[in-house]
Amino acid sequence: MPKTILIVDDDPNIREYLETLLTDNGYETIVAENGEKALEVLAAHSPDLITLDIEMPDKTGPWFNRALQRGKTYANIPIIVITGHTGLKYVIPNAVGSLSKPFEQKELLDLVRETIGS
């Protein structure tokens, strides 16, 4: 059974790019355009990994992460931060990794594989 990755990013081009990249490499994907939508998606799905943007309208990456940590149900899902704001990529202290946009495909795929396997 393929591993599932929740992609949380407000940029539709980034969401589509990540969805294609990860799907082409054997993962299932679900998407959300902000932290609030991501919490709604979590109610229906249980992803193995989350890729998380930091700066998004409505509910930001840090807001989403705090909500995850408070709820405990999803607190152990690994998070990879993918952001265009290089100075903010470490604001999610429990992230398993951080990548700056633009990123290398291999770098992301290696990090995903190290974290949840193929």
From TrEMBL:
Domain Response regulatory: 4-116
One Gene Ontology term of the molecular function aspect: DNA binding
Protein name, UniProt field: Response regulator (CheY-like receiver, AAA-type ATPase and DNA-binding domain containing protein)
Assigned keywords, A-Z: DNA-binding, Phosphoprotein
Organism encoding this protein: Solidesulfovibrio magneticus str. Maddingley MBC34
UniProt modified residues of type 4-aspartylphosphate: 53
Signal peptide: none
Gene3D superfamilies attached to this UniProt entry: 3.40.50.2300
SMART domains: REC
Source organism, top-level taxon: Bacteria
Entry coiled-coil feature ranges: none
InterPro entries (alphabetical): Bact_response_regulator, CheY-like_superfamily, Sig_transdc_resp-reg_receiver
A GO biological-process term: phosphorelay signal transduction system
One Pfam family, short name: Response_reg
The keyword DNA-binding appears for this protein: yes
Phosphoprotein listed as a keyword: yes
Family annotation (SUPFAM superfamilies): CheY-like (SSF52172)
